[in-house]
Amino acid sequence: MPEVLRPTPDSGWTLAHDGYSVTTESAVESRFAFGNGFLGMRAARSVSRGPTWASWLGYIRWASWPRCYVAGLFDMPNTEPAVPALVPVADWSRVRIVLDGATLAAREGAMLHGTRTLDLRRGVLLADWAHRTPAGVTFRGRELRLLSLADRAVGLQILRIALDRDEVEVKLEASFGLAGLGMEPMRLERDLAAWRTEGTAKAVAMAGAARLAHGGAASEPERPFPLRWVWRWRSVAGQAAVFARLVAVARADRPDEDPAPPAAAALARSTALGWRAVLAAHEAAWGERWTMSDVLIEGDDALQRALRFAVYHLTSAANPEDERVSIGARGLTGDAYFGHVFWDTEIYLLPFYTAIWPEAARALLMYRFHTLPGAREKAVRLGYRGALYPWESADTGAETTPDSVLGPNGTPVEILTGKMEHHISADVAYAVWHYWRATGDDDFLLQAGAEILLETARFWVSRAVPEADGRRHIRHVIGPDEYHEDVDDNAFTNVMARWTIARGLEVVALLQARWPERAAALRAALALGDDELAQWRDATARIVDGLDPETGLYEQFAGFHGLDLLDVADYADHALPIDVIIGRERTQGSQVVKQADVVALIALLPQEFPGASAETNFRHYEPRCAHGSSLSASMHALVAARLGQTETALRYMHETASLDLDPDPNSAGGVRIAGLGGLWQAVVRGFGGLTLSGERLEIDPRLPPQWRLLSFRTRWRDRMVAFRITQDGVDARLLAGERMEIGIAGTSVALEVGMAQRVSH
């Protein structure tokens, strides 16, 4: 038993946090959160933390913010403005310990030591602590919690406790804390309960089984209420009691569905196996994922650990078994952004999943296909054709960005992103195309991808309006730089729009050449005629892009170069964002950029920056960026790495890594998962030089001089390839799949299964 409660011995696979501070506790709970893409749980202490309920007193800070989430379980809370939000479900891991009638509470007595450890390799949260009560009794505990990667409906908790004194009357109460908060009960039974959301009529069921053994024998619990267990005994000094709890969860999306039977079945599966087998299957599933996704760096231990932290959370967030959900801006690790999905998923996360876990990437893109009706409705509502995806999306595909929020002084502040940040429709198309190019998943293209590409292309043609100057303009938009709202001809938006339309034309030609029957059926269903396609070709030729052909410099949007210059470096040491320091009006009148905008375009479409153009634009915009978003640094790191600006790239990589690894209170709302996906991209696609979107897999590494090794694996069109990059050259090995040719630094190399090829620098 004790061995399973100890972390992996290799410290490169673990993160530990000692002690407790109210200023950082919620951030620790986010950082050490655990999940499996269906369920997510924050790393709140399960023992001795006391109850939690909502309070209106804004000056009181919760010492902990326990949360358990079910992906896709959205409802409309009583908030203003009213927007859908993930519904927290019962905190199934809470345990209350009572010693001689006094509840064990962290705020009373003395915490002798308390360490939480996130074991990245095993995908488990561990705790080890000792607490001396006011009565002088020392309580020692060890705990393991997980949400199974092998059976996503299942969670496990193992708790081992011991006292240093005989004859203490011990009571252990295990319950499902705040079960059903905000939901209407459907059924409440001894080991199972189910609730339905009030607004969306979704349902969730939770089932539980628990046992406790002490003195070498199992003990029967009292069962005063459903999903509640109580044990009582008298302590023997040093004798351990072991508590084990299994939980199973199921979600139902329609009123006629009952989630109780699948939850009960999942609990039956796990109890029949026993907790040791559940743990073993979970660890094996994580082992399989790490075999594919681990990235080895020799020469930068800090970045190595940060990258594993990133891959851990990326793995924890995805569920290839569910096409109806996507990944929110904070995954399933916190309440920030209400679980809403942004462009983060397609631009910052999809490259990881496409390269490492294409089954997960496919499911995430199918979410966009299933929400295509909502995107069409938004386009029509705003006067356009095709599909305009929502800037913030929940489960239905409807726009969930609020129209306004209340400012600090109580006056409404209009929110324009939902109305004007339209580049999301190009971002989705970008992810669809690059997934298909990397995987060769023709079935996805025919079933879903082609329709998304055509409808997003159609939107952009209707959005790019011909004007008197003979050009097509896209006016009244917000680009990635959200400091500047309601601008015209944002370069990122326009160039991505042009690219999307071109891909739409390409997919029409591709379908007609390879699958003429599907081409005819899809064109008929969409009423896509030759006259409209002629308009598409016209649009690709006439959309304004803001490029100065003489200098190779893009203007971020019309009039940007005429704004006031501001030295962003003068504000680098301030804790507050620059727009807060200098005010909204001055920010909008200055050449200060919130996050990568033109720089993001360099990262996504490098072919639009021939010759020295990429470096020209990066040198121009990098010093103007204030990095007011956690998305920004990793994109700059990726571009800098590709340009060979190694020190700049490393600085931005370490900045990205520190966002959630450092005990930053701003992480309280959940980990910034887009930054974690961006960090992986900066390393593998930046320094590693991996490209999957061409006719062959390409790699053109630029290793920092202080790195001795960079090693990773990737999938490409039903193959699996391993790369080992050193200062001397590149070793490539085909691990699975048919013979292939790859490009290594421009050299063509043939690979067969089991064969290793080396290209020296």
UniProtKB/TrEMBL annotation:
**Ranges of residues in domain Glycoside hydrolase family 65 central catalytic:** 308-681
Glycoside hydrolase family 65 N-terminal domain ranges (all copies): 18-249
Please list the residue ranges annotated as the Glycoside hydrolase family 65 C-terminal domain: 693-751
Q: Which InterPro entries match?
A: 6-hairpin_glycosidase_sf, 6hp_glycosidase-like_sf, Gal_mutarotase_sf_dom, GH65_N, Glyco_hydro_65_C, Glyco_hydro_65_M, Glyco_hydro_65_N, Malt_Pase/Glycosyl_Hdrlase
Q: Which domain of life is it from?
A: Bacteria
Q: Which keywords, in A-to-Z order, does the entry hold?
A: Glycosyltransferase, Transferase
> Which protein family is named in the record?
Belongs to the glycosyl hydrolase 65 family.
Protein's name according to its UniProt entry: Kojibiose phosphorylase
Gene label: kojP
